[in-house]
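We modelled the chain as a single entity of 326 amino acids. Its sequence is:
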Amino acid sequence: MTWGYDRLTVLAYHRIAEANAASASAPGVVSASPQGFARQMDHVRQWYTPIDLDRLADFVVDGRRLPPRPVLITFDDGYRDNYEIALPILEERGLPAVLFVATGLVGTTRMAWWDRVWHAVRMTRLPRATLPEVGRVRLDRPQMRNCVWSLLSDTLKRRSFRIREPLIDEIESALGVERPNRNRPDFMSWSHAREMARHGIAVQPHTVDHPVLSSETPDDARAQIHASVAMVSERMGRPIRAFAFPNGRSGDYRQSEIDALRDADVRLAFTMTHGPVRAEDAWKAPLEIPRVALELKDGWRGFALKTAGGSKVKDRIRALPRLIGR
């Protein structure tokens, strides 16, 4: 294994769903098919030592040693299929996990903003359109639609949650697509979350409205953190120990957000910078722990490569020209 016995591997999943659900969800949101996820969990159980959130917190707070090749399984957002599909697979294998929920979505019929935008771009019959924020675009080929989606996604995630919803209303109108009427919620209920907790899944906050925190004012970002911490603690009846940054890349949060987490007595926070990470580094920076972000397109080989540290190796290769030029 590229990353040995003293490396902490934190796996980051979103949806677990079949291919037909993947096409209806925004690109990259489905992390694995049910069959693929089951195979991945078998691999995890064979080659790693699964740990729960409390074990990791004990390491960070009290210095309790981690087992060899520790792995923590996490899910972001709170999609319903985490309860319906992922939970039985985890239960069958006796695997613990962590579920980070956006509290403004759990227990509602709301769509995530990224799924709404993807639906509008995918379903429009217009060959061209003028869209807010990005201007005139072509939509007459699938590749063009994918490019438009990427452009809109990259733009909207940098907008405050306060103005993003009205912008999406305008996008749907410009594309001639109505907001879909969801007969069945995309996200789980709080009763689902409590059921998961009874089966070894630690439920923790992921903000209220899933904004990129650095795109908000410091006060609004702090409110997103504190409100989600309070809501999850109230609904689950337990103190909060961890948090996951939305988007979670470098620049998506500031020192003020890390300070807000400390103020809320949150001990662990997870990013989407590339893991695995040395356990010692996680101990030194417990509010910025990297994860291994997984997508359906990775396939089996991509999963095995990422969990062995392949993404970090790619980062180092990309950095070589910069290092050589110094």
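As a brief sanity check on the tokenised model: The chain has two domains: 7-109+187-324, 113-175. Residues 113-175 form one domain.
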